[in-house]
Amino acid sequence: MKVLVIGGGAREHALCRSLSLDPDVSALYCAPGNAGIAEVAELRPVDALDGAAVAALATELGADLVVVGPEAPLVAGVGDAVRAVGIPVFGPSAQAAQLEGSKAFAKDVMAAAGVPTARSYVCTNAEEVDEALDAFGAPYVVKDDGLAAGKGVVVTEDRAAARAHALACDRVVIEEYLDGPEVSLFAITDGVTVLPLQPAQDFKRALDGDEGPNTGGMGAYSPLPWADPKLVDEVMALVLQPTVDELRRRGTPFSGLLYAGLAITSRGTRVIEFNARFGDPETQVVLARLRTPLASVLLNAARGTLDAEPPLSWRDDAAVTVVIASHNYPETPRTGDPIEGLAEVAAQDAPDAYVLHAGTRREGDAVVSAGGRVLSVTATGSDLAQAREKAYKAVSRIKLDGSQHRTDIAAKAAEGR
Ligand code: AMP
Ligand code: GLY
User: Fold this and answer.
1) Probe ligand 2: pick from 282, 284, 409, max atoms within 8 Å of CB?
2) Lower Cβ count inside 10 Å, N or C end of the chain?
3) Rounded Cα–Cα distance for residues 295 and 290 (Å)
4) What is the C-alpha separation between 396 and 408, in angstroms, rounded?
5) Is residue 204 part of a domain?
6) Which residues pair with residue 367 across a beta bridge?
7) Same domain? 333 vs 250
8) CATH code (residue 51)
């Protein structure tokens, strides 16, 4: 099977790594990719947001399957453009991707499907904003309706700041604050059958102890030893299957990866948000634990034959990933700094620990930083403590001027807290 992956972050590196290990995959391409992905896939340049260009590339390569990694191409209809030339796509249509592309749409689907989520109002003017802020009180949760590359959500005790963010958005969702630990649970679906993956936890804040600004994610781990063993079954029954059923009922079936961001509150599990694609950095740890070869699962989801797939098989190992970010991330990340130590990790820590590239590119013989999140250093071990130790040992070998990483990824969970 020839597979083309669209995107170029650590999530796509994790996807390409798994696909490259799958004996069913005879050729693997990634567009545009990055310096690390180039080691497991053949890179092609493409504007990932240009559906016609992606469809032409997939046709030229004779791809049997296109996997779209990031949300922006999905919302822009790249999946539809590729399906229109007869090539199966793992990833939803533009209409179904509205589950991530519009928070108001997601709330409407959840209301119709009876999915538990924060109570909310959709506001389009200052009067509605003031009413909603006062109805819920602090802490205020204000979400830009549309895609905002991780910058759309403000959670604050400061009413003026909440109001200012709300008024800067065209349409905004203001909702009840949800207390409790967060869990990311992914499911692969063809629009009818839903196959849940294993839960993971993401660390959103830039600094240790969950301090500092919100980021795209600074690390992740799986499994979650503290979670109720029935969590996956519960979320399947209350969230994932009803959402997939509701989108099919509306005539816009969702196929691809349904990402449920959940809060485990004292009053039960609630959806914080849906995404329409694999999460980053959670994918790095979830795929590290998946034993089932990935390609046929993704192809069956793309073709609508997921019911033919046997249940997924998982390794007993735990996995931890630590993101190395550039100087000044997330505000104004500096790029172009050389990265050293990659060969040392490959020589001394593989196969238990390895480096997935997020924002990197090759410059002559050097690999340099090319984004805010630069690397996602991933390790597996017999438990979280061992996976953590291996991941941080590999992190210590990497040299990137001015870089930052959290030192407490999976620390509490590894200690049984
Ligand atoms: P997002 O940018 O959509 O991934 O959301 C960023 C983060 O905002 C989430 O991971 C949560 O930590 C937080 N958040 C979103 N909605 C709520 C809520 N209703 N209550 C508490 N925290 C929230
Ligand atoms: N890890 C958060 C996200 O992928 O949106």
Assistant:
1) 282
2) C
3) 12
4) 14
5) yes
6) 339, 362
7) no
8) 3.40.50.20
Q: Which amino acid is at 9?
A: G
Name the token pair of 211. Answer: 């301090």
190 within ligand 2 shell (Cβ under 6 A):
no
Which two three-digit tokens encode residue 399?
A: 């040299």
Q: Are residues 324 and 302 in the same domain?
A: no
Whether 190 and 252 share a structural domain: yes
Inside any domain, residue 146 = no
Q: Does 209 share its domain with 293?
A: yes
Nearest protein CA to atom 3 of ligand 2, as residue: 279
Total domains present in the chain: 3
CB-CB contact of 124 with 301 (8 Å): no
**Atom 4 in ligand 1: which residue has the minimum CA distance?**
150
**Which residue range is the domain that position 69 belongs to?**
2-90
What is the CATH classification number for the domain harbouring 360?
A: 3.90.600.10
CA distances for 69 relative to 12, 15, 275, angstroms = 6, 9, 11
The one-digit pLDDT tens for each residue of the chain (417 residues) are: 999 999 999 999 999 999 999 999 999 999 999 999 999 999 999 999 999 999 999 999 999 999 999 999 999 999 999 999 999 999 999 999 999 999 889 999 999 999 999 999 999 998 889 999 999 988 999 999 888 776 788 899 999 988 989 998 888 999 999 999 999 999 999 999 999 999 999 999 999 999 998 899 999 999 999 999 999 999 999 999 999 999 999 999 999 999 999 999 999 999 999 999 999 999 999 999 999 999 999 999 999 999 999 999 999 999 999 999 999 999 999 999 999 999 999 999 999 999 999 999 999 999 999 999 999 999 999 999 999 999 999 999 999 999 999 999 999 999 988
Which ligand sits nearest to residue 182's alpha carbon? 1
Ligand 2 in reach of 102 Cβ (< 6 A): no
Handedness of CA 339, 345, 347, 353 (dihedral sign): negative
**Nearest atom, ligand 1, residue 177 CA:** 20
